[in-house]
Amino acid sequence: MRLGTVIGRVTLNTCVPAFAGGRWLIVSPFTREHFQRGTETPPGMSKDPSLVVYDDLGGGVGQTIGFVEGREASQPFDEPTPVDAICVALVDEIFYSPFAK
């Protein structure tokens, strides 16, 4: 699982029936730099490419989510479904305490 910030939504007029009731989020994935900056700086745009994530949990813009990619993303569906990334967690808080140097 990876973490990222929701930076937008995608609107569709037609989709595969298996996706009914869900939505698509544009996510900027966290990188190592997000955690090294500490909690003083809000997480912003990553230097890594953003990706589109299927969501049926209700994530919103500005929220931190957990997502999985690849083959594991299609596991929650009953039938084979063409999805590459899915939201699996809505994150309330991240506590990170690196080892002292």
Biggest sheet descriptor:
5 strands, antiparallel
Top-tier CATH class: Mainly Beta
What is the alpha-carbon Rg in Å? 15 Å
Spatial shape: elongated
Low-pLDDT segments, ≥5 res: none
Overall helicity = under 10%
How do the SSEs run, as a string of H and E?
Answer: EEHEEE
Mean pLDDT equals 85
Distance between the termini: 27 Å
Fourth-tier CATH superfamily name: EutN/Ccml
* Number of helical stretches of at least 4 residues: 1
Strand content: 25-35%
| CATH architectural designation | Beta Barrel
Here the CATH topology equals OB fold (Dihydrolipoamide Acetyltransferase, E2P)
User: How many β-strand stretches?
Assistant: 5
Class by helix and strand content?
mainly beta
Describe the structure.
With 101 residues, the chain is mainly beta. It has one domain (2-91): EutN/Ccml (OB fold (Dihydrolipoamide Acetyltransferase, E2P)). It contains 1 helix and 5 strands. It has one helix spanning 32-36, and strands at 2-10, 23-29, 51-55, 64-69, 85-91. The protein has a 5-stranded antiparallel beta sheet, with no helix packed on it. It is elongated, with a radius of gyration of 15 Å. The chain starts with a strand and ends in a 10-residue tail after the last strand.
List descriptors.
OB fold (Dihydrolipoamide Acetyltransferase, E2P), single chain, elongated, 5-stranded antiparallel beta sheet, 1 helix, 101 residues
Helix and strand arrangement:
Blueprint: E1 2-10, E2 23-29, H1 32-36, E3 51-55, E4 64-69, E5 85-91
Antiparallel strand pairs: 1-2, 1-4, 2-3, 4-5
